[in-house]
Design goal:
Elements (H helix, E strand, L loop, with lengths): L1 H7 L3 H17 L1 H5 L6 E5 L2 E4 H19 L3 H4 L2 H24 L6 H9 L5 E2 L2 E2 L1 H10 L4 H23 L5 H12 L1 E9 L12 H10 L5 E2 L2 E10 H7 L4 H10 L1 H4 L4 E10 L6 H19 L4 H8 L11 E6 L5 H9 L10 E2 L3 E11 L6 H34 L5 H7 L4 E2 L15 H7 L2 H5 L7 E4 L2 E11 L2 E2 L2 H33 L13 E10 L7 H9 L9 E6 L5 E10 L2 H34 L2 E3 L3
Antiparallel strand pairs: 1-2, 1-19, 3-4, 5-16, 5-18, 6-15, 7-12, 7-14, 8-9, 8-11, 10-11, 13-14, 17-18
């Protein structure tokens, strides 16, 4: 193919190719081709494009964030098709808001734009904006200057629009005060708990009751659709176990990879630290610097470093040892400290003042432990693992391609691939569309198992890489459609359910009798304790107390305020089936706490209301826009 193109390009075809290249450059400029910003559309909003490049950047950014948050659980928790749709929807709404902000008369001047860009540290060199650094950063991130500045202008316009929208939302002072008073409230409460379990022995359930319940609740007894799978698993871990390496291979690997085993140079220093926080006032920082300079002058005049460190260093971990830190290597310390420590030439040398985020340091080199390469025998086992890992990864890559080919070309069976690659066909337990455990929890596996090709057409799935160095291909061996369970299958479950319901009802009858007694003042709750009944004595509790279960606390704070000298009793059915009788005997508030909470709530409420307003506004603007979607 290449030779044919070469031959034909010598004639008329060559001129056609040149013209085809020149025209796009003339129309769009060379920058569009070198920056990667080819104009392709993911959507259009009122005729204005949302480019595929913008969509890809946004999607990659959101995906990375989710991957960092969820780690290995990403594949089982995130459905990328839905995530793509969410990102595209957000971009469309954002674009619609940008257009609306321009209609409303918002604008960003060139001077404002450049002020914001030049203030970004990423574009600065030694604290000053650098045009070359600006261009390099944009180039490394596949942005042209025009497109980046346009996106920043849109971001600033959007910010203006949202700020105006937020500032128009007023949170009423009286509402915040009421919320603060409620949030800061404390209640004195205790409760009686009536356990339903002792009543299980008294509950009787006959077959007629079971049949009646079954007939009335058939929807509860449907078995979910399930599949059982056969699958092949290819993994570097399994391949490593079958790989053996010889002493000769390891020795050659040792000689070729000395950087893998070399122990880095280490240094031990003494240091004196005079604290000055990163955000310290100028006067505080200046005082710390003066003190550090005075100590450095004493050291340069010959005073003992260790004694000065012990008496003056504000590093509590090392001061008592004369400032000695112990051996460390590159990467262990903050950059400024590390650079100073490794710039000292010989033992006894003292640094100039070193400023870090902790304050001012003076360093003295105590010892150097040169970089060294351990003997082959000492690192033989580590090298064996590394070499096996490399060989396994190479083998995995080769076999992965074979697995894809074999299971695609012979899509009605896993056996040919298993035989050719020496893999074992594994079997899974039945799983539903909710997934299962381990491998069956991965979302791509669930989607493949219930896909049309695998479930209906009885084909092998595509090869699924569940994590780095592990891939599976599966097929359905057994399909269990959704069906109604028979009475015989569920009768014992129903019997247990009805017995529990009867026990809960009996416990509630007992609780109501106790409630009548304590409300009339006929009984001290503490004297009612017996098997199945317990009393939690009264304590003052806030809404976030962890001394009782949250549902008890919630019920207690919903109860009416007790009158002076009296108590309020409320009955609450627990999610466990037990009944609790809660006594509220007092309510109090902390004026200082109210003020504190009032400030926090006002800020939080304003933000919540404003965000909701902006989101609603965005949805409204988007709904009125003419939207064309090109991504499916």
């Amino acid at each position: 193919m290449l030779s044919a193109i070469r031959e034909r390009s010598k004639g008329v075809v060559a001129w056609v190719i040149i013209v085809l290249i020149i025209i796009p450059f003339a129309l769009f400029g060379l920058d569009q081709f070198t920056s990667g910003d080819k104009i392709e559309f993911a959507a259009k909003v009122n005729g204005e494009p949302v480019t595929l490049a913008d969509f890809s950047r946004s999607f990659d950014s959101v995906k990375r964030q989710y991957q960092e948050n969820f780690g290995e659980m990403y594949a089982s928790l995130v459905q990328e098709d839905k995530l793509r749709q969410q990102v595209l929807d957000d971009l469309v709404q954002r674009n619609a808001l940008d257009q609306q902000s321009i209609k409303e008369g918002f604008a960003v001047s060139d001077a404002q734009l450049m002020q914001i860009i030049q203030s970004q540290k990423v574009f600065q060199d030694k604290g000053v904006f650098s045009l070359s650094r600006y261009e390099d950063v944009l180039k490394n991130n596949a942005y042209s200057k025009e497109r980046f500045e346009q996106s920043q202008r849109q971001f600033m316009l959007r910010g203006q629009f949202e700020d105006i929208s937020k500032s128009s939302e007023i949170v009423g002072a009286s509402e915040v005060l009421q919320l603060s008073a409620l949030e800061s409230q404390q209640r004195e409460l205790g409760y009686l708990r009536v356990d339903h379990r002792p009543y299980l022995a008294q509950a009787t359930v006959d077959d007629a009751q079971i049949k009646t319940y079954y007939d009335a609740n058939l929807d509860q007894f449907k078995s979910s659709e399930q599949v059982e799978l056969a699958y092949l698993r290819l993994s570097t871990d399994n391949l490593m176990q079958s790989i053996t390496v010889t002493n000769e291979q390891l020795l050659a690997y040792y000689n070729d990879h000395s950087d893998k085993v070399q122990l880095p140079e280490k240094r031990n220093v003494r240091h004196i630290l005079i604290l000055s926080a990163k955000d310290a006032d100028a006067s505080v920082d200046a005082a710390a610097k003066v003190k550090a300079e005075a100590l450095l002058a004493k050291i340069n005049k010959g005073e003992d470093f260790a004694k000065l460190a012990e008496a003056n260093s504000q590093d509590p971990g090392s001061a008592s040892r004369g400032g000695e830190l112990g051996f460390f290597q590159r990467g262990d310390m903050v950059p400024e400290f590390e650079a100073a420590a490794f710039s000292l030439s010989k033992v006894g040398d003292v640094s100039t003042l070193v400023k870090t985020s902790y304050g001012y340091h003076i360093l003295q080199l105590s010892a150097i432990e040169p970089a060294q390469t351990p003997s082959f025998e000492k690192v033989r086992d580590v090298l064996a693992l590394d070499l096996k890992g490399e060989l396994a990864l190479k083998e995995y890559t080769q076999r992965l391609e074979q697995l894809k080919t074999l299971t695609y070309e012979q899509a009605d069976s896993l056996e040919p691939a298993a035989k050719a690659l020496g893999l074992t066909i594994e079997k899974s337990a039945a799983m539903t569309r909710e997934g299962g455990e381990g491998l069956l929890a991965a979302q791509p596996v669930i989607e493949a198992a219930f896909s049309t090709a695998v479930l209906k057409e009885k084909l092998n799935s595509a090869v699924i890489e569940t994590q780095a160095g592990e891939a599976v291909v599966l097929r359905v061996t057994t399909h269990h459609p959704e069906h109604e369970k028979t009475l015989a299958e569920v009768s014992e479950d129903i019997r247990r359910l009805l017995a529990r319901q009867a026990a809960i009802a009996l416990a509630q009858v007992q609780a109501q009798a106790l409630l009548s007694d304590v409300q009339k003042g006929n009984a001290d709750p503490a004297l009612l304790v017996k098997s199945g009944i317990e009393w939690q004595s009264s304590e003052w509790m806030a809404r976030n107390s962890d001394k009782v279960l949250p549902e008890v606390l919630t019920a207690a704070f919903k109860a009416a305020k007790p009158k002076e000298g009296q108590s309020t009793w409320v009955e609450h059915r627990m999610s466990t089936g037990d009944t609790v009788l809660i006594r509220v005997s007092g309510v109090r508030q902390d004026a200082v706490k109210i003020k504190q909470i009032e400030a926090e709530l006002k800020q939080a409420a304003a933000q919540v209301f404003a965000d909701a307003m902006v989101d609603a506004l965005g949805s409204t603007v988007k709904s009125k826009a003419m939207v064309e979607l090109f991504l499916k």
